[in-house]
Design brief:
It is a single chain. The protein has 613 residues and is of the alpha/beta class. The chain folds into 4 domains: 21-144 and 254-310, HUPs (Rossmann fold, 3-Layer(aba) Sandwich); 160-250, Glutamyl-tRNA Synthetase, Domain 3 (Glutamyl-tRNA Synthetase, domain 3); 311-389 and 525-613, Ribosomal Protein L25, Chain P (Beta Barrel); 391-516, Ribosomal Protein L25, Chain P (Beta Barrel), CATH 2.40.240. It contains 15 helices and 31 strands. The strands form 9 sheets. Strands 16-29-30-31-27-28-17 form a 7-stranded mixed sheet. The chain has a 7-stranded mixed sheet with strand order 25-22-23-24-18-21-26, with no helix packed on it. β3 (65-68), α3 (78-93) and β4 form a beta-alpha-beta unit. The longest helix has 16 residues, at 78-93. The chain binds adenosine-5'-triphosphate and magnesium ion (MG).
């Protein structure tokens, strides 16, 4: 909660001010409501509350109110990021406020570890819940008393009853799509009788599961959610906030609309699977507005398609299984689609915001290709990530005439290269200082950059070929210097061509067939590089009830020992780079320069899209 930016402004907006945002059905609904003045009469009591509380307040300074309401039962993932960007983004764009709300009405699965990680994730993504001088951070468990009162109101007005049927009886009497439900024998008890029973439930006089409170709506409704849904159950469980104060807890479908209404939410956005719940959402709030408990007009629910991303699982439960079965190193394993995982992998908040903006919101489910997410990352880092050279599969190259040219074997020369290419510097922007690195007699090159017998069209090192060491000298390959017992080349020989250093007048005097990347052995730094690949081999690893564990990619992590130029070794954790020709890398936030002092980099993404192949 460190941010002090007012008005729910993101700390780092994805797009320049004034940039045209692509419209979508939610923006159209909001624009319509603003034009029609649907919510202009609402008042805000300064905090969530009932009708009387808000009526005593000021006209609401927020033009709209949205909310992000996670259950604190796991770490947030990229699907939640879509919802965060949507809810906070709409509030920002329309002079509204987005509430951060923990939907903690289920006592069993929740934990404060998750609460903190969720707050961190939202802030890291660039949003905050401070607006109009207030922190809009709420928890649904604070509303238990009101929810209880609302339930009593429904009982008293004949809109709810205590049902003592067994779970099985209730299930079979609910009917199905083709068959209307059957009334419970307890359905026609008097309000007074129901009220007495409900209070007994609250007072702990009945066993867990022995009875529930149900809304009394219509057992023949074509929408099964309206066939007298349960709204309160008995559950002796210690809640992480309210402790043992309650032994009855509201059902999600009852709690959620009330949470929205107490907070004066105008547009309650949820994923499509809640569409069938909307009639109950409306029914409940109408009853409570009618009874004067809640201020009118009540919030409205709108559904949008959840994010499905290829090669990615977005279910907290399944992600938890990967963690607890040690298939990954933890919630923040760089292969995880959790926000902490994406962050450690090297994704930036801006790239995720850009992704959310680009995929937009629709009303029908579809799959987004993983390459779209990677594309946003590349787009964001292209002009930001400093360049550097790293050799990931090193083999030694010796410049055999070095002492003849420079007078001594241990002579070194400084080379300079821009940290960002000219094309990445915006007009008027000062370019970052150049990188300076040394070249000497021995350098590391990539194993694939030498061929004893070149395949057709090969332009890099082979005996007799002339190549530039990028940013250094032009060299002529003379052949293999040494091989190991297996016949593998361990040393390549070449001759440096004097006067050809990049950036000097003689640089173009000799034409090189190719430029290869390299790191000097004298000043290059040994680093651990973690080459991450997709976690699953199946594009839809858990679709149709498939066992996603079977789809795990056995080669999703390859660790190599690399050599990097000194500017990279000096990186701070989380700093991102483009390793020339290899792609985008980040200094690992946990392990880079930790204890032993060794640099550790994660591959964020390659330079080109490799997902479609
Ligand atoms: P999970 O199934 O992973 O547990 P959930 O939907 O139960 O996810 P909540 O904590 O209840 O998780 O979700 C908080 C908000 O995030 C909800 O408003 C929900 O609609 C939204 N959300 C969750 N998953 C996605 C997704 N894949 N795409 C878009 N929004 C999502
Ligand atoms: Mg949920």
């Amino acid at each position: 909660m460190s941010s002090t930016t007012p008005g729910n402004k993101p700390n780092n907006a994805p797009t320049a001010d004034g940039e045209h945002k692509v419209s979508n059905f939610l923006r159209q609904i909001i624009e319509h409501d603003l034009a029609a003045g649907t919510y202009t009469q609402r008042r805000w009591g300064g905090s969530p509350g009932d009708a009387a509380h808000h009526a005593a307040g000021q006209p609401d300074p927020a033009k709209i109110r949205t909310r992000f309401p996670p259950e604190p039962n796991g770490y947030l993932h990229v699907g939640h990021a879509k919802s965060i960007c949507l809810n906070f983004g709409l509030a920002r764009d329309y002079g509204g406020v987005c509430h951060m709300r923990f939907d903690d009405t289920n006592p069993e699965k929740e934990d404060t570890e998750y609460v903190n990680s969720i707050l961190d994730a939202v802030q890291w993504l660039g949003f905050n819940w401070e607006a109009n001088g207030q922190q809009h951070l709420y928890q649904a468990s604070d509303y238990f008393s009101f929810m209880y009162r609302a339930a009593e109101y429904l009982v008293e007005t004949g809109h709810a009853y205590v049902d003592e049927q067994t779970t099985e009886q209730m299930r079979s009497n609910r009917g199905d799509f083709g068959k209307p439900g059957v009334d419970s024998p307890f359905r026609n008890r008097t309000p007074a009788e129901n009220l007495a029973r409900f209070r007994e439930m609250r007072d702990g006089l009945h066993e867990d599961g022995s009875m529930v409170l149900r809304a009394k709506i219509d057992m023949a409704s074509p929408n099964i959610n309206l066939r007298d849904p349960a709204i309160y159950r008995i559950r002796r469980a210690t809640h992480h906030h309210t402790g043992d104060q309650w032994c009855i807890y509201p059902m999600y479908t009852f709690a959620h609309p009330i949470e929205d209404a107490l907070e004066q939410i105008t547009h309650s956005l949820c994923t499509l699977e809640f569409e069938d719940q909307r009639p109950f959402y409306d029914w409940l709030l109408e009853r409570l507005c009618e009874g004067g408990l809640l201020q009118s007009p009540p919030p409205r629910q709108y559904e949008f398609a959840r994010l499905n991303l290829t090669y990615v699982i977005t279910s907290k439960r399944k992600l938890a299984q990967l963690v607890y079965d040690h298939k990954v190193s933890g919630w923040d394993d760089p292969r995880m689609p959790t926000i902490v995982g994406l962050r450690r992998r090297g994704y930036t908040p801006e790239s995720i915001q850009l992704f959310a903006e680009r995929i937009g919101v629709t009303k029908s489910d579809s799959w987004i290709d993983y390459s779209t997410l990677e594309g946003c990352l590349r787009e964001d880092l292209e002009n930001k990530a400093h360049r550097g050279m790293a050799v990931l599969d090193p083999v030694k190259l010796v410049l055999t005439n070095w002492a003849d040219v420079f007078g001594a074997d241990d002579h070194t020369e400084d080379c300079t290269q821009p940290a960002l290419p000219h094309s990445a510097i915006a007009e008027g922007q000062t370019p970052p200082p150049d990188r300076v690195f040394k070249i000497g007699k021995e350098v590391w090159i990539e194993r694939e950059d030498f061929e004893e017998v070149p395949p057709k069209g090969y332009k890099r090192l082979f005996p007799g070929n002339v190549v530039r060491l990028k940013g250094g000298y032009v060299i002529e390959c003379t052949g293999v210097g040494a091989k190991d017992a297996n016949g593998q080349v361990t040393e390549v020989h070449a001759k440096v061509i004097p006067g050809t250093k990049s950036g000097t007048p003689g640089a173009d005097s000799v034409k090189a067939k190719a430029a290869i990347t390299w790191v000097s052995m004298a000043s290059g730094v040994k680093a651990e590089v973690r080459l991450y690949d997709r976690l699953f081999l199946d594009a839809q690893p858990d679709a149709g009830g498939k066992d996603f564990i079977e789809a795990l990619n056995p080669d999703s992590l390859k660790v190599v020992t690399a050599y990097v130029e000194p500017s990279l070794a000096a990186a701070k954790p989380d700093e991102k780079f483009q390793f020339e020709r290899h792609g985008y890398f980040v200094a690992d936030r946990a392990d880079h320069l930790a204890s032993g002092g060794k640099p550790v980099f994660n591959r964020v993404a390659g330079l080109k899209d490799s997902w479609g192949k």
